[in-house]
Amino acid sequence: MLDHTALSINQLRDNRWLFTLLGVLCALVAGWLIGSWGVMGALMTVGVPVGLLLMVGILVEPKLGLLVYLNLSFLIGFTRFLTVDIAVGTGLDGILVLTLLSTFLNGKRMNWKRLRQPAFWILIVWLSFTILEYFNPEHPHPSSWFYHARSFSLSWFLIAIVVSVNPITKNDIKVLCALWLVWSFFAALWGFKQQYIGLEQAELRWLAAGAEKQHILWGQLRSFSFYSDAGQFGSEMAGITLLCLILFFETNSWLYRAVYICLAVIAFWGFAVSGTRGALFVILAGFPTYLALKRNLLHIFRALMVAGPLLALLLFTHIGDSVYQIWRIRSALHPTEDASFIVRLENQQKLRNFLKDKPFGAGIGTSSGAGQRFSPNYFAAQIPTDSWYVQIWIETGVVGLTIYLLMLLGFILIGTFKVWQLKDPWVSTMMIALLAEFVGICVVSYTNPILGQFPTSTILFINSFLFTTCDRWDTKTK
């Protein structure tokens, strides 16, 4: 054994010239990159080796790919700080495809029978419809189909396979939720920094480029943190508030209760500084869902005792109207008095006239960002969507919108049925929380197009195939 070790050391000494040469070459390449590309070159010098290691790690363990994908979904908002245009969304697609490839390479460890779940077949129906939409004769620019099909169905389908068949454990779910809470906590802090300290130069440039008209109202900044916009930031903060409130009521540990209530307060004020009024409906829809799933009269009574007076204060008084954020939240409960809501209804009437002879819509990729990029003169690209469901309606028509809404309803019904069969208390609590948040985001997506935006889409896609397959973590009974 000692002779073998000594021999290996001697071999390394004999070949040290090779390692020296490799080190010099790496240093020269790094110096050239930094000298030619500046900060971007430095990032490449560090990022390329790390990226290669991550690729190898993902190919060995697909669950690592899912974690990387989740974290990068939050980081995508920081692209506004980059001076070079980088296709981060395409990079995320690459991570997801690599994770799927790793799932197939490690196929012997996977439970492929889980793909027989009803939720997966429902998703396949929607996926098939969106693929057929590529051939929509109304589409003025078919190549833009891919840009919106990813958020409509393709990413959801790939995530569904990865989450369903991988041997995900309860600890993996804890890690996913912990990452979600940590990122949301830092997002709230960054939103407070924007509101009370000031914006960075990159953020000011982003506002000046066109986002100012949505994010500065009556001289007040709507904080957007490192999300795509204030609408998504506010909705995510409302979702975390809901999640933490549910966990607060469900845990028996006073330490965890203190942590959850602190996070709920921080997230709720993050929602308030976003100025996103519609995000209130994440809580107004999600919390009753939680109570219905619990089927516990005591829980319902306690919730009514707390929520009733708070809603009455918002609906029937003007207490706190001097604070801009409270006034914005209160105005969400009086939509008919809001000028922007009336404009939305007028836009939807214009769309009804445009789509009355287009049951399959104008084609995927004709509205919102992709529409303005590829077919800016087309009518569908010129009308603000202001809603995820309006975007689905424009691009896939009344047929596509019906299928999509039935799919969401199917997921909720399947999740409800599965949750009510659970025996394990921890699994039941977590899945009820995830399902309630899913319902809340589905409701608020009528007012904001957030269901197809990172990181909300990533979280929703993962969660939907956690609570619809939750029986795999249940306590086995004889």
Topology:
Elements: H1 2-14, H2 16-37, H3 39-60, H4 62-75, H5 88-105, H6 118-132, H7 145-165, H8 170-196, H9 201-215, E1 216-217, E2 220-221, H10 230-250, H11 254-274, H12 280-294, H13 297-316, H14 324-331, H15 339-355, H16 368-374, H17 379-382, H18 388-420, H19 425-444, H20 456-467
Antiparallel strand pairs: 1-2
Helix pairs in contact: 2-3, 3-4, 3-5, 4-5, 4-8, 5-7, 6-7, 6-18, 7-20, 8-10, 8-11, 10-11, 10-12, 10-19, 12-19, 18-19, 19-20
Provide structural commentary.
Residues 4-9 have low confidence and may be disordered. Strands 1-2 form a two-stranded antiparallel sheet. It has 478 residues and is mostly helical. The chain has one domain (113-473). It has 20 helices and two strands. The termini are far apart. Strand 1 (216-217) and strand 2 form a beta hairpin. Helix 2 (16-37) crosses helix 3, helix 6 (118-132) packs antiparallel against helix 18 (388-420) and helix 10 packs parallel to helix 12. Pfam families: Wzy_C. It is a multi-pass membrane protein.
Please provide a brief summary of the model.
The chain crosses the membrane at residues 17-34, 40-59, 66-82, 88-107, 119-135, 147-168, 175-192, 230-249, 254-272, 300-319, 392-414, 426-446. This protein has one domain.
Characteristic terms for this protein:
mainly alpha; globular; about 0% strand; two-stranded antiparallel sheet; about 475 residues; single chain
